[in-house]
Amino acid sequence: MLKLPNDGPPVGRLLSQVLTGDGPAAIVHAIARAQPPLMERLGAGRLHGDPTEIVGVNDSGDRQKALDVGAHHHMIAVLRDAGVRQVLSEEAEAVIPLNPDGEWDVAMDPIDGSGSIGIGAPLGMLFSILPAAPEGFLRTGEAVVAAGYASFGHSMDFGWSLGDGTHIAGWDAEAGEFRMVRENVTLKPTASTIAYNASNERHWAPGLQAWVADLRAGKDGPRGRDFNMRWLAAAVGELHRILLNGGAFLYPADRRPGYENGRLRLVYESMPIAFLVEQAGGLASDGTQPIRYRKPFALHDMTPLIFGAKDEVETILGYLAEPTEG
């Protein structure tokens, strides 16, 4: 590894020294330990075959790539060994039973942002942990007791919360383990960087179109300051960046057929994000209520999602609530 002039020995506690409990802590640790093989396969690109090869279609109608399915099966094996009762995955239509006597259920997106596999853009995975219950995964986000994500970019990072704040670790290849990078992440309440897909603006509700017009007017408009805009096309990449540097993200509902309820999955994408963001002092909403209060009526329900800096999310919600003419 290249050594920079100010480099020293790695710092930060090893993750194995932090996640020492059983139950959700042990499951979170097992998920963390399962990430290096995924990162290594991503890093190998097309050397051994094409990870972007289309091998199926998931329940939401998205084309499944070879890496999507490979990551799914890899994580199912890990969660079975971790004693999880059952799993809901983006890559399977039905709930997957693992250990009938297990005390915990896991919802996961094994590869988030898979449209960018093979081009070097950020990818990752998302998960949440719920206590076993007859309702399974058809519960509000208030049932979530732990959540986390992995981010695969120029570094491999792992973020999680057990309800005691949000924490981030980075992969130490020399130690063969994650080390703590940030503990008790706190989101700044104001945002200077906003992430959204600008190509969809014309389909948005009038209130949102007014918000983005004022945003782009910058210091010459009613907001009185300039903003930066980024769009990584991977929710987990946006989450990681916002937890580290602040900002806000939105993928709202719009007028297009199939987008009336947004496009992000409620149970295994939006609920974990909401849990992590709120544990860091931010907000996560569907535009009308906090994500944690939203109840899924089907396993793969979609939802609008707005998350990040508290003040900016509240500003967006204020624009959405403004009455429209006509």
Automatic annotation (TrEMBL):
Q: Select a single GO molecular function from the record's annotations and give it.
A: fructose 1,6-bisphosphate 1-phosphatase activity
Annotated positions binding Mg(2+) 1: E90, D109, I111
Q: Name one GO cellular component term.
A: cytosol
Q: In which pathway does it act?
A: Carbohydrate biosynthesis; Calvin cycle
Q: Where in the cell is it found?
A: Cytoplasm
Catalysed reactions, as listed in the record: beta-D-fructose 1,6-bisphosphate + H2O = beta-D-fructose 6-phosphate + phosphate
InterPro entries hit by this protein: FBPase_C_dom (IPR044015), FBPase_class-1 (IPR000146), FBPase_N (IPR033391), FBPtase (IPR028343), Fructose_bisphosphatase_AS (IPR020548)
Q: Which residues form the Fructose-1-6-bisphosphatase class 1 C-terminal domain?
A: 189-318
According to the record's subunit comment, the protein's assembly and interactions are:
Homotetramer.
Q: What is the protein name given in its UniProt record?
A: Fructose-1,6-bisphosphatase class 1
